[in-house]
Structure formats: C-alpha cells, structure tokens
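Would you mind writing out the residues of a protein together with its fold in token form for me to study?
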Amino acid sequence: DFGRSSELAFVVEPSDDIAVQEQPLILYCQVEGIQPITITWRKNGVMIVDSENAFMLANGSLYVSRFQRVRGDGSSDEGEYDCMAQNHYGLVVSRKAKIQAATMSDFHIHPQNAVVEEGGVARFQCQIHGLPEPVILWHKNSMPVNTDNERYTLLPKGVLQITGLRAEDSGIFHCVATNIANVKFSREARLTVSGSHSTVYKDPMILVGPENLTLTVHQTAVLECIATGNPRPIVSWSRLDGRPIGVEGIQVLGTGNLMISDLTVQHSGIYVCAANKPGTRVRRTAQGSLVVQAPAEFVQHPQSISRPVGTTAIFTCVAQGEPPPQITWLRNGQILETSDHIKLKNNNSTLSIYGINQADEAIYQCLAENSAGSTQASARLTVLWADGLPSPPQGVRAETVSATTIQVSWEKPLQNTKEIIGYVLHIRKAADPVEMEYQEAVSKSTFQQLVTDLEPSTSYSFYIKAYTSRGASKASEVTVVSTLGEVPAMPSLFIKVINSTTVQATWEPSIKLGQHEGFKLYYRKVHLSQYTGPVLLASNITAYNITHLDASVVYEVKLLAYNQHGDGNSTVRFVSLRETVERTVLNPPCDCMKDEQNNKTSTTGIIIGIHIGVTCIIFCILFLMFGYRGRLLMCKNVQEQLSTPQIPRSQRSATGLVLNGATRRDRDDRDLNGKQLDMNELERLFPASPSQEQQEKGMTSAHSLSAPHDETQISTLPLDEFSIIEEQPEPLPKNPHGSSPAAPAPNHGPANEG
C-alpha cells in the first residue's frame, strides 16, 4: 500500500480552454491509485449530474455536447471545472480549469486617413477584443499587404507601420480580425503620399512610444517605438534600472520596435525608447512597463507520511510564482479548517496536526493559485494503530489547590493495562495554541499528579495518555479548571518626615505585587486602637502625604495592596516627629535665599583665600631670599670695618675682639638651639674666591702667632657665622715702602685684614 502506485494522484488534469459556441467540448481527467476509484466533476463547486448536454466518459473525462454561453434557462457552460477522485484512502481534487466562450467584439479603433510627405512614416492602427486573441491582418486596395517588403511592419496588436514612404504606397487600407469565433473587417482608410522628400531639418520626435503590457511567461512581447525627424533619428532601447536587455530572444522589428520572445519573470521592468539625432546628443525618449507573470508552481511538494496515534504530523508545501501564489489546504477535497490541534504556519506553507488520531487519516492537498494560474499537490496521512493498546485513562479530574497549584487525578484504562509502562499528563493554558502544550511523565503506579508553578486566575486544560512499549493509548477526555486568584504581595513602604505635622509615605511599584487594583493606607497614634483610614489609592499612585499630625506622639503607618481576591499582607512603619520639632527649635529654619547667598559668598571666599595663600607663599620665599642677602651685607660691613686703614691697629683689634666675642656668644647660643647652619651648603651655594681663601689663611696664620694667654683675642672669625661673597675689598693706599696693607707687619700684634 505504500508503493508509488498506491498514492491516489492525477496523471492528467483539466486545463483552461476556450470553447466555441454550439461546438462540443472535452475536459480530460486521468487518475492513478488503488482501485476502486470514483471520479466526479464539479462546476463552480457544484456537482455535475450526467445529462444529455454534459456527461462523463469511461476514461473519466467530461464531455459537453453543445457548448452554450447562455442557455434558455439563463445558465451558462462557462465556469471553473474540477475533477474529484476518491478511493478507500481518501479524496483528491484537481486544479480548476477555467472554461470561456470564444467571442469577438466590434472594432473599437479603426484606421484613420493620413497624408504624409514622401520619405516620412505612416502608421495605421485598429483594435478589437476577442477570445482567443484575434489575429489581425492588413489589406491594401483589397489585397493582403506584402509582408516581404522591409518598409512594412505588422505588429501583433493591430498596428501597421510604413517607413520611407514612396508614391506607390498610396492606397486604401483596412484590417481583418480573425479567431475561432468570427471574422470581422474594419473601416477603410486612405493613405496619400505628397510631394518630394524634404531636406528641411526637423528635431527627432517619437510618434508612438511603448505601451504598458502585462503578459505571462513564454509569451511574446512587442514594445512599439516609431520616430520621425530629419535626418532620420536612430532608435535605441534600454532598461530604466540600468540592467542589460540581453540578446537572447531579442529582435528589432522595422526601424525601432523591440520584440522579446519566450518571456521570463526577469524580463519585467521599465523599458526606455530613445530617438537620437545622428552625430549629436539631441534625443527624445518614451518609456513603458512590462510585467511578466508566472503561474504558481511547487518548489516543495507535500510528502505522504505515517505516524502513530498521539504524535504530530507535519506537511510542507512551498510554491512560487508571480505574483506570489496563495496556498489553500484541503482535507479529502474539502477546505481544511484550523482548530486547536490543526495549525497553519508560514503563510499556510506548513500544516501541523497535533495529537493525531484515526479521524485525522485522510488525503491532504495543497492548492497554490495566482492570477496567472493554479496547481495542486496531495499527500496522505496514515495513522498507525497497534492492536492491544490500552484504552484511554478514565475519570480524569482536576482540583484547584492554590493560586499556583492544581492536582490532577485519574483512573487506569479499562482494557489492556498489563503492558502500561507509564502515563503522560498533557498540560496547556486553555487560551494557548496546541503547540504550547507541555507534558509531565508519571509512573504506572501513580494515578495523581500535583501540577505546580501555574499562574493565578488562569484556566488550564489536562488530558492523560497511557503508554506501552508499542505505542500510546488514545487521549482521555479533556478537563479544564482554573487556578485560584491571588492577593497581592506586601508592598515596600518608606516614611519621610516633611515637617513637624506632615510625613510622606512612599512605596515602589513592583511586578512582585501581582495583579492589584490599588492600595489601602492606614495610620494611627500608637497608643490608640482605632486606625484612620483606609485611604484608597489607585494602583499607579506611589506616594501620599499624611498631614495635621501631633508632633508629641509616635504614629503607626500601615500600607497594603488589594485586588478582587482580597487584601494582601500589610507593611507597617513607625514614625516620630519629636526629633524634628527639637531640631527646629535648636536650628531655626534656614533662609534659603540667604543660604544661597552665603554659599555664593563662601565660594568667593575660598577663591580669595587661595589667592591670599599663594601670595603668602611668594612673600615667604622673597623674605628668605632677602634675609640671606641682608646677612651677606652685614658680613660685608664687618669686612669693611676690619680692612679700613684709617682706624688705629689697636682699635681694629678691639673691633675684631668685640666681633669675635659677640660671634662666639651667638654661636654658642645657636649650638644650644640646634640651629647651626650647614657649612657645606653655604660653600656650595656661595663658593669662596681665591682672594678670600688667601685672606682666611692669613687670618689663621696671624692668630697662630698671637699670645696664647688670650683665647678671645686669638680666636678666628668662623666661616659659619656669615656668608662669604665673591666681592673684592676696596684697594687700600700703598705705604711708602710699597707693601700691601693686608700683609702682616713684623714686630706688630696679630691682625686679620682679609
């Protein structure tokens, strides 16, 4: 049964046709599959009963003896016909064949008289509607136009073009339209060729540009473009989107008409005809659109499948076409209706059947249809059923335990229970699609299951299946029950003291509260039993001010959320305003404007303080520098006193003694204070000159020759008592003997003139 020939399928389907009035019509239908197969026909969805006018042949085809567009009773043989085939496994429906009567209307455009100068272009046109499309031929002076003449171009839509006119082209023209329904003649039109070929310059001009066309693949498109001008313009074609037109199947008719054979969808686009003056950029353009439609065809056919009971069957049907086709599914020839366990996805290209049972066994068809045509494909679903499987579990009950818990219980099946290895509980929100269902496995000895983590105030559906190693039982009856409603959770509450008589209660909205309609606020003095409230607040309110309070007592504030199921647990806070009163007495309320001014003043003071600090640092540095210089100047004065020749030697010694004595005492005092200046640093900062070193040596030598009994007199002037500068003493007048006054005189007491 699963071979290719077992599938019920069409070998030949009826096709669209145009029927001739009072002539017979045959619609073909041939089917293969497992016999017996029954074939029936429908017209516009209504079953056709055999009659003298229409009956089915032995091979399954439909024969219409005398096709009539309109019958005496007002009915018509025109319409959409389809063939249905049925066997033991199901039913299939063929594609719809559109049958139309052959017709031909009168001409609605006739050729017109024309007078054209020699060398110019003449164009005649006639139009007529008909089914099938009439073939139009042209006659000149009652004789068919010679199409071998290259100057004569006949276009399919009833256009005659004559280029490079000559005197012999003058005559009377008319067109003849022919199809299977009729033959008709247009009115006549006279062409007059006047004068000789003109040499006057004329700008290029497009007489007729391309029309907008909508055709089907494999047809032929002719885009007309006829131009005039002197000199004769050059006609060229391009696509507006810049893509190349190509060369395959492309042909130029006459002097500029574009013909595209064997159309494809890729030929769709906007085509531009350009008439160029030779050797220049002078041009005129005209454009027209070409839309190529493609009938629906399958990219992926649905495949026949076999599935056990209780599982999921999926059929996929992918079709393409231009415009994109619409997909419809049939089940045994009837339009498939979706339900909880039958779903269509991906623009109807995927059919899913959940929890299949024997009633789902059928032939499923995918119909793809657009304005260019339709097609169909079928597949069979076989539901596998093993003998000896358990019957469905019995007595399924569901009881609500809480807002998030339901307990489901059941009884074992009535038949074939020995091979049961377990049960599967199927759970789904009643409002959710079947594909959102989930399962929980239960051991074979357990006949109840506590289902947790459910949502409050929500309806759930449950059913049970018993499983064996060979398959599952049919589903039990479905039971639906709702969880209990849930009161909101405790809100978070914060209390803020505003002033001595007002506090502000604030809370945060949270999804943890669940569904709530609003809040209730209570407050009281702690020594009282009676609350003030409730103050009812909407669910979007998050703060409330409690006023006119007594600052000398403690208050209790309570907040809870509520909904239709009741009040939730409350959050309690205690607050005292006494500290606020005390702070107000000790720290009177601030003058905000004054504080703001003070803040601005403080900022200004900080900036001024920084400037003052920097200035002080600079002054300190300058003070230290001038302090060093002052001490250096003092040392200079001492040297000048010691080296002045006008002072008697005895006085100079006395001065040196005084200086040395004072210096000695000063040094002793500094030693006691630990503030002696670093000798090395002074020498580094103020290096001594060679003359000074010599003077120092002289001083040392002089002191070494002095009497040892007077330490004060022979003590040297230490270098660490003053700074040495590189400054030469003023020159002293030479003595009569030409010796330097700084040199030690023999037979005199000690002297230090350096």
In short: DSSP finds six helices and 56 strands in the chain. Helices lie at 578-586, 592-643, 649-673, 679-685, 690-705, 711-714. The first strand starts at residue 9 and ends at 12. The longest helix spans residues 592-643.
